[in-house]
Amino acid sequence: MPAYPQTIHFVGLNTPVGIEWAARNLDVIGAIPAEIDGAFFRAVPDPAHAPMFDDDIVLSGDGMVAKFTIQGGKVDYAIRYVETERHALEKDARRALFGRYRNPFTDDPAVAGRDRTVANTTPVWHGGRLLMTKEDGLGYEVDPDTLETIGRWNYHGAFTSQTFTAHPRVDPHTGEMFFFGYEADGLCSTKVAYGVADRDGNLVSEHWFDQPYCSTIHDFAITQQYAIFPIFPTTADLDRLKSGGAHWAHQQDLDSWVGIMPRDGKVAEMRWFRGRPGVSAFHIVNAFDDGDLVHLDLCLSDTNAFGFMREAGGIQRDQREISGGLTRWTFDLSKAGDGFEERLIGPPGDMPRLRDADQGRPYRSAWYLSMNPQGGPPLPGGPVGFAFNALLQIEPGNGRIDMMGLEFGMAISEPVHVPSAQAGHDGWLLMVVDRQAGEADFKSELWVVDANAIAAGPVARVPMPLPMRAQVHGAWVSAAQLASAKAHQAA
Ligand code: V55
Ligand code: FE
Q1: If you ran DSSP here, which 8-state letter would residue 221 be given?
Q2: Distance (Å) from CA 268 to ligand 1 centroid
Q3: Which residues bind Fe cation (predicted)?
């Protein structure tokens, strides 16, 4: 069997595991609060085969869907591959057939025209369906009980885009889901499809618009009135793809843009605001409107956080020399022109988490991952190659910041938030924490943390019996939601 390349994308916490397994009644150290009742789904990229090209990256790994089921203080775990078309073809061939990240011109001719997506970025729950998503293709529906793949999801053919974002947004009051797909009609296209689904998961509308150039629109935001599309200057080029090159290259001198339109889909009313050149953000914490003002809080950096996207754009900058921070952009829709205001509201970091109930509304508190100033060098792992080792709670209204800093040799992945039924309680955060136990030996645990007392550390820990590859995003789905799963209703 060919070996995996010994690069940052395949060593450390990124060492491929590729084992589908399940375990019941894992050991729990401490006590899991009884009100935590549901499932923590995780998207884990894990390449089933050694890649065709040695410069392959984490983002190409086959999506695995993992599930912690938590009920009555007990924890079960299961993980399976998402049976994408790509995974099935490579499984049959017993080798990689798809080439470089999002470049079909580098594939084995045997798979020309086949679905390349690996469904490895975010588990999305909406309208009784669990989707495993990646922004270069449609989501795959997965049975939330068995983790078996049901198939590609396009709203019974109603959603015509070829792609579906890994970062849809759900309005907590209406239950509607707002989403989009970019490169909606093909590689390097500027076409963006914007969709709205009702609370039962039926497509209500789909409207198309053009972005200023073909950028990677990884995340977007909604407020009670608006949909907000940030455009950062990481661009695609068809000639580069045809010559076997990178899909994305960051352009440090190109302007960024933000498009704001009514969230019900009036694309003709889109207003474009011009931002600083060269900046980048992958994740937005939240957005909200206040009269004519629209506030957008995002994890902003002064260049692209992915080394391979910088290098393709000729930018030589070490990961540790990237600066940025939690940033608020404020747009005044009563004013003409394309300007807006910028204010720093928190330390650098990424992988933000919000209470679902605060989506698109003024919010008191949010959580995200950062670096512990006392934590020592980060462990190699995760999509950018360096794992976070601190969890922050931030209250943008008053600047209060709290931190759960991890010790040397530890890493943390993005938490999910579980609401609490107790009045005045901020709920719970669940997350996987890894610890280096030997040169190539990592131990993983599930941690349960009081969301309003993170500095106190976990109230419960669940040591995992097998290694776990680094996750991208996760989703919490309550037992009540799981009971409404479409997969269990009579066909
Ligand atoms: C991201 C993740 C992806 C991807 C593009 O976190 C961007 C950002 C896990 O896959 O394909
Ligand atoms: Fe993301």
Answers
A1: E
A2: 29
A3: 167, 218, 283, 473
CA-nearest of 198, 157, 152 to 179 is 198
pLDDT exceeds cutoff 80 at 490: no
Beta strands 324-332 and 293-301 are antiparallel
- Ligand 1 proximity of 165 Cβ (cutoff 6 Å): no
Count of Cβ atoms closer than 10 Å to residue 204 Cβ:
14
Whether the CB-CB separation of 116 and 108 falls below 8 Å is answered with no
For residue 235, pLDDT over 70 is answered with yes
The residue assigned the tokens 């209204």 is 397
Tell me the per-residue pLDDT of 343-392, one tens digit each, with 9 for 90 and over: 999 999 999 999 999 999 999 999 999 999 988 788 988 888 899 999 99
167 is annotated as contributing to ligand binding: yes
Global confidence as pTM: 0.98
283 carries a ligand binding annotation: yes
DSSP state of 395: E
- pLDDT for 1 equals 54
Residue 479, classed as helix, strand or coil, is: helix
Cα 454 from Cα 447, distance rounded (Å):
11
Does ligand 1 lie within 6 Å of residue 134's CB atom? yes
Residues facing 391 on adjacent strands: 369, 404
Q: Where are the domains of the chain?
A: 12-488
Tens digits of per-residue pLDDT, 78-116? 999 999 999 999 999 999 999 999 999 999 999 999 999
Compute, in angstroms, the gap from residue 118 CA to the centroid of ligand 2. Answer: 14
Fold of the domain built from segment(s) 12-488: Methylamine Dehydrogenase; Chain H (2.130.10)
The CA 450 to ligand 1 mean position distance, Å, reads 29
Q: Which ligand is nearest to the CA of 382?
A: 1
Q: Does 111 contact ligand 1 (Cβ within 6 A)?
A: no
The whole-number pLDDT of residue 363 equals 97
